[in-house]
Amino acid sequence: MEIEFIEEKENKLFNRKEIKFYVDYDGEATPKVLDIKSKLVALLNTKKDLIVVDNVQPHYGEPRALGYAKVYDTVDDLKYIETEHVLAKNAEPEEEPAEEEAEE
Questions:
Q1: Can you give the CATH number for the domain in which 42 is found?
Q2: Per the domain annotation, does 40 fall within a domain?
Q3: Quick one: which of 35, 61, 84, 93 could link to 31 by a disulfide (CB 3.0–4.6 Å)?
């Protein structure tokens, strides 16, 4: 999976950077939001808590998708501005404790 940045602009009103990018995924399924988020964290050298992948739109018939992400200055700004469903989409899955069945 390769990420190519198209546009990066500073939005001072919301204390964030807005980034448009292409994701190339030759021979693979469309990457999950969390996979793209991890790659962006590495490329942008930021913390995982400060970035939100807003949407990823695959191009029909091409192994390429257009994405939009936001990098906030603080976690408080992110939680205040972003909606619940976007935060849920970008949240790490919680690991459920393995339940052992009691054999009697």
A1: 3.30.70.330
A2: yes
A3: 35
